[in-house]
Amino acid sequence: MRERLSVVIPVFNEEGNIRPVYEAVREEIAGLETDFEIIFVDDGSTDGSLPLLKELHTDDPHVRVIGFSRNFGHQSAVSAGIAAATGNAVICMDADLQHPPSMIPRMVEQWRAGYQVVYTIREDGADTGLLKRWFSSGFYRFINWISETPVIPGAADFRLMDRSVVDVLVAMPERSRFLRGMVGWLGFNQIGIRYQAASRHSGQSK
Ligand code: UDP
Ligand code: MG
Question: pTM above 0.85?
Fold first, then answer.
């Protein structure tokens, strides 16, 4: 089967980030000599995000757009994108460029080497607020205390999954989804790679 990459990007009021993230992702994929699609899931944006996405789709058939009827939340948007993906590898990443598109080639390289999940581990940059750091580390300590499934601190929803993993994930009946826990629970051949957290390109954290 020919290699095909799906990039899934949830969008909630990201009009200032859509073009930059689209261009950065395209540029990274261009060097990989692979077939691809970029799936934007508009999670009920109220700014100019959806018209912008439709414009991208008109100009570039590699771009697909899913539009939600209202805001359902990040995990629902990512899940819908994964379910719609047709690639034999699926990469999920945020729209605000905090998940650096420059990591894509390294993720694909690990997948080509045989790993079925390539997850990423965020190393906090200097501009990550103390409060967010504190809540974040408290969250991971708590979830690992109550749960048997290990959840790796700093492992956000920025990862590559092979088709074999995606098929199982999509078949799981959980409605209220916590993807990073579910993917950890699934098993498969997993590897983590580290990246430096970037600051948000435009707009505010949702
Ligand atoms: N997002 C979404 N629905 C929401 C909130 C956020 O689809 O209800 C998207 C958002 O557009 C971004 C990603 O999820 O692409 C991560 O959101 P954000 O950057 O606000 O989270 P943070 O990086 O602050 O944890
Ligand atoms: Mg962000």
Answer: yes
